[in-house]
Design goal:
twelve-stranded antiparallel β-barrel, about 280 residues, alpha+beta
Length: about 280
């Protein structure tokens, strides 16, 4: 019990660290979508069990905003921290398991939603900037045979911009593992409430008057479905080369947004690679 409380304290400290990191970096924040598709999706499958800190850096090639058909090359920093069965922290957010179980986890989650700068693409001129937000919610995660993970999260903006709430369902599977090479598959679906969809895909009457876009006010909607592959090659005990590719399809009312159709695309592809260093403790 004492050990578990100590891990909980360290987990809370780590979540505070994520808040600081989230508001001190703007890499890929202008996409309006946490684009990181590498280690955060597959970390619990591709890394050995236990406690570790993984940091890394690389490059990703993807749309310059979520829904765009213009692509750019961007730096891709990586952060992944795991404290036993209690805490998981990555670019995609932080989760604390309050149950103390390994196969079924449940508890609070913290998430960072990056904003969007209207200067990112000429199509966004007149829409104004969308700010970053810190989101808080709850998660549940089921692990089967150390090869399959299903995670359900709900999080809602509580600080920063009014970016609304999102339901996020993720499935990951370890497809192959042999010696120093491993391969994993990930699938994901997201639903956004009305505030979220209008923040990132809507065009108000005022915005329409300030831009070349038509007014568009979507409601709550399933906004995207995605599938991706992640690969990891361990070059040594501590260093690894990682690669990933992901396809996302915008659906529901979202693919009717004027920043998606006709000026963007409902089909979003991102590929990337990065070098990572892992410290076990």
């Amino acid at each position: 019990m004492i050990i578990h409380r100590a891990l909980m304290l360290r987990s809370l400290q780590a979540m505070c660290l994520l808040v600081l990191l989230a508001f001190s970096t703007d890499v890929r924040a202008q996409t309006g979508d946490n684009i990181y598709a590498g280690l955060h999706t597959f970390g619990e499958l591709l890394l050995p069990e236990g406690s570790q800190l993984t940091v890394g850096a690389g490059l990703s090639y993807g749309p310059d905003y979520f829904g765009s058909d213009d692509y750019s090359l961007e730096p891709d920093p990586v952060l992944f921290l795991r404290l036993g069965q209690v805490l998981t922290l990555s670019n995609d957010g932080a989760s604390i398991n309050i149950l103390g179980l390994s196969d079924f986890k449940f508890g609070p989650t913290l998430h960072f939603t990056g904003g969007r700068n209207q200067n990112t693409n000429p199509i966004l001129d007149g829409l104004g900037d969308v700010g970053d937000s810190l989101d808080i919610g709850v998660f549940a995660k089921v692990t089967i045979a150390d090869r399959f993970i299903t995670r359900l999260r709900y999080y809602h903006a509580v600080a920063g911009a009014s970016n609304g709430g999102v339901i996020d369902l993720t499935f990951s599977a370890l497809l192959y593992e042999q010696d120093t090479f491993s391969l994993a598959l990930g699938a994901r679906a997201r639903w956004g409430d009305k505030r979220h969809t209008r923040q990132f895909f809507g065009v108000s009457a005022e915005q329409a008057a300030n831009s070349e876009l038509t007014e568009f006010l979507p409601g709550a909607s399933v906004q995207d479905l995605r599938i991706g592959l992640g690969a990891r090659w361990e070059m040594s005990e501590k260093w690894a080369l990682n690669g990933y590719a992901r396809y996302t399809r915008l659906i529901g009312e979202i693919d009717q947004s004027p920043i998606v159709d006709p000026f963007g695309s409902p089909n979003q592809i991102i590929v990337g690679a990065y070098l990572s260093h892992t410290i076990d403790f």
